[in-house]
Amino acid sequence: MLDLFPATAAIEGDELTLGGMTASALAAEFGTPLVVLDEQTLVARARAYRAAAPDALIAYGTKAFPNVAVLRLLADEGLGADVSTLGELEFALAAGVPAERIVVHGNNKSDAELARAAEVGAGLVVLDAPDEVERAATAGIRRVLLRVTPGIEVDTHASIRTGHAGSKFGFTPETAIAALAHARELGLEAAGLHVHLGSQLVDASAGWASIAWLAGFASVCERETGWSPAVVDLGGGLAIRHVEDDPDPSIEDFVAQILDRVQRGFDAHDLAPPQLVLEPGRSVVGPAGVTLYRVGVVKQAADGTRWAAIDGGMSDNPRPQLYDARYTALLANRASDGPTATYSVAGKHCESGDVLIRRVALADPRRGDLLAVPATGAYTLAMASNYNGVPRPAAVLVRDGQARLIRRRESVDDLLAVEVGRDEGRSG
């Protein structure tokens, strides 16, 4: 199981260590639940993308884990940022990501978001709907991509499939050509096209049909308007392993297949190959993350199910409820103990569906044990809520035996701070 954990993970004595620190020491200093990100793994995966596509803009998919320290670390490795809201844009700017490396998305951009993107000189703004063309020009945007929906289904969860015919994202091919003409009339620099199929794709073959389609569509644009894309943004989407029987896709192989298919597709239509933009999120930060929980109640139900309850759950990781996502775990403070029985791991929330892991073999968990869940760097804390009034966890970066707090733990006072008139009705 240790190969699901970050690169620096090890078992020393009875303890799981991450970045040279024991899980017990991390929990003692920062509390639980705690998201631990391994800096060495983050950097290695960023460098793998840069090495695989040295001429491409690698724009980190900020939504996977929006955090200033992480964005700054990735920017130092030459990555940009793919942002889809004003908040994500401000995260990238606070981290010092160069504006020319920022790609602004969003299927329903506000005037404020467009104005801010123009103000800071964001490198690319991805137009997603007909009315955005004029609104972008009015806001002062200059360099744009058009997101086109090819109508291609891919094998992933329906909630993260984005290139199908009924998608809320992008232009249809017919409206894209009209929008392209309109953008050029308004003086926008139409740099290229964007297409994205979805997330958690196990290999690049799912995108081959899309790349071939995109090259064909570019040929149609060139024939009908005299324009062809100088830039093509293919989004992100590479999967990661969450459990041992998941495939283990390679960044290098995934990107090499994409580059080959783009070259072939554009060659087939006698078009110059475009500059590429890739937007990896999950495949950069996901494997770097481990969440530490404290075990509380351990009991057995009437049907024989053994339950181990933790001090977090769907408020810090809603993916099992949203996407039927699977995870595994080990007891971090007794990591050398062999499993003795199969348990279900329950969260603390008032929902029968608040189950983090349906079945996992553990070494008889006891109250106070630490449970470590790997592959939780992406779309966990990023999608967290305050359901049941539960404050969101802290996050730390670890490296060489040192831990750095990069997101403090929320408190109940933080939750109450946004309540208006909260002191009304208090006696005394």
How many helices in DSSP terms? 12
Strand residue percentage? 15-25%
Total count of strands: 20
CATH topology of the largest domain: TIM Barrel
Summarize the helices and strands and which ones pair or pack.
Elements: E1 10-12, E2 15-18, E3 21-22, H1 23-30, E4 34-38, H2 39-52, E5 57-61, H3 68-76, E6 80-83, H4 86-94, E7 102-104, H5 111-120, E8 124-127, H6 130-139, E9 143-147, H7 173-185, E10 189-194, H8 205-225, E11 231-233, H9 251-268, E12 275-278, H10 282-285, E13 289-300, E14 306-310, H11 319-323, E15 330-331, E16 341-346, E17 355-362, E18 370-374, E19 394-399, E20 402-407, H12 412-417
Parallel strand pairs: 4-19, 5-6, 5-12, 6-7, 7-8, 8-9, 9-10, 10-11, 11-12, 14-16
Antiparallel strand pairs: 1-2, 2-3, 4-13, 13-14, 13-18, 15-18, 16-17, 19-20
What is this entry, summarized?
This protein has 428 residues and is of the alpha/beta class.
Structure explained in plain terms:
By secondary structure, this protein is an alpha/beta fold. The chain folds into two domains: 168 residues, Lyase, Ornithine Decarboxylase, Chain A, domain 1; 176 residues, Alanine racemase (TIM Barrel, Alpha-Beta Barrel). Helices cover 30% and strands 23% of the residues. It has twelve helices and 20 strands. Strands 4, 13, 14, 15, 16, 17, 18, 19 and 20 form a nine-stranded mixed sheet that branches. A hairpin with a 2-residue loop joins strand 1 and strand 2. Helix 6 packs parallel to helix 7. The radius of gyration is 23 Å and the shape is globular. The relative contact order is 0.16. About 3% of the residues have low confidence.
